[in-house]
Amino acid sequence: MNQSALVVFSGGQDSTTCLFWAMKTFERVEAVTFNYNQRHKSEIDCARKIAEEFNIPHMVIDMSLLNQLAPNALTRTELEIKTGEEGQPPTTFVDGRNLLFLSFAAVVAKQKGIKHIVTGVCETDFSGYPDCRDIFIKSLNVTLNLAMDYSFVIDTPLMWIDKAETWELADQLGHLEYVQENTLTCYNGIMGEGCGDCPACKLRNAGLKKYLAKKEQST
Which residues are listed for Zn(2+) binding in this entry (predicted)? Predict the structure, then answer.
């Protein structure tokens, strides 16, 4: 079995939890972060700091073309962050983001002799993003294997758990407080608890509240 993994790493709650999961699961772990001129661009510095702190080889890839191709509330500060109309994703959905990120991550992984690609996508709390669905990941996994004639495995440790269970996983991995204090999920670029108002903060903080209440009841 190939005991190495490349984590698609944003420095947020989900990808940092995935990083810790990968560090426990694989002998060798590296990370890749994508710069697409996102409005919460400070997440790149956050990712770089975390990788350095845990001695994880880390690279940042310029994906500014995505910003040019897909104007939305994450790539344009003048656009309002809001939930989508019925049946539509929120304005923070970036068309093609996970397709491109995972494809580029696969190129990096193959060059490094890595077969496992770890991503924090989740179908349970996926905010209506179509490229976070399990069926998309499985389809892309097959496509990447065929395109590069290489046996990639896309690992999605958060796919079937909600935000409260993601916090629980971070706790089980021994890094609950670290993820609370040192990750950046907020669309407005505020560390930790964030602004509290954007959809990412609401989802993150509601999940934490639910998990801490469960933890308190079990003690």
Answer: 186, 195, 198, 201
Closest CA to 179 of 53, 60, 92, 93: 53
* Contact present, 112 and 59 (Cβ < 8 Å): no
Q: Which pLDDT value is given to residue 93?
A: 54
**What tens digit of pLDDT does each residue of 18-55 get?**
999 999 999 999 999 999 877 556 889 999 999 999 99
Average pLDDT score over the chain: 87
CATH number at 4-217: 3.40.50.620
On whether 132 is known to bind a ligand per the annotation, the reply is: no
Any binding-site annotation on 16?
yes
**18 known member of a binding site:** yes
pTM, entire model: 0.88
pLDDT category at 88 given cuts 50, 70, 90 is low
Residue 30 Cα distances to 9, 22, 46, 83, 168, angstroms: 9, 9, 16, 34, 24
**Residue 122 marked in a binding site:** no
CA distance 106 to 109: 5
